[in-house]
Amino acid sequence: GTLVSQGGQGVVTIGAGVTLTINSGVTITFGGDFIITNNGTLIANGATFIGASGDLYTASGSTTNISNSTFQNVGSTRVTGSGGGTVNVSNSTFSNCRNPISVDAGMTVSVSSTTFTGTTGHAIEVAGGNATITSCNISGSSDMGIFMSSGNLTVSGGTIQSNTNQEIRATGGSLTLTGGLTVNAASAAHH
User: What count of Cα atoms within 13 Å lies in the side-chain half-sphere of residue 61?
Assistant: First the structure.
């Protein structure tokens, strides 16, 4: 099936204690500003997200699990949340999206085996919370592959290269780079 937002602001709210599962073959098309607010549990496995602008917002105490999913040409989609929210993304693709992963204070975010190509802005931004990035490939961002201003971030495995400004930039917080990670030598991690 397909869920379509056709202009204006569309809002889907998942209540506390409620689980929304988006299965393989489902396409979510953002036609205007669109927000999925998760106060319970959101599971997307094999879903496709396409369109103009939207957020997958995970509230405190809630969990969002995204796997085997595709985000395409989404002008402003962010997988984001607030203190106490948990987001897990695995085996997914973000292509031509704007600032796709945003980690805010108090959040716990894990991204693994995911590809980011041609993003506008940063592919991953950490502004608080705890994030783990494992075996991801990040290239072609119009700004930085990963930008961190505060929080805790561990990056292991994968490749970060060919981003416009820098591959990784940390201006605050705690950044740990571990084995198996390849970073374009032209712009290594900055503090």
Answer: 7
What are the tens digits of pLDDT across the range 130-139? 999 999 999 9
pLDDT above 50 for 189: no
Q: List CB contacts of 65: < 8 A, sequence separation 6 or more.
A: 41, 42, 43, 44, 45, 87, 88
The set of residues, in sequence order, having a beta carbon less than 8 Å from that of 185 and lying 6+ positions away, is none
What is the widest separation between alpha-carbon atoms in the chain? 47
Hey, is 145 helix, strand or coil? strand
Nearest residue to 160 via CA among 189, 130, 120, 125:
189
CA dist., res. 56 & res. 190, Å (int): 29
Distance CA 106, CA 54 (A): 22
What pTM was computed for the model? 0.90
CA–CA dist 159, 156 (Å, integer): 9
Length of the chain: 191
- 96 vs 87: CA distance, rounded Å: 21
3-class state of residue 106 by DSSP? coil
Pairing of strands 108-112, 144-161: unpaired
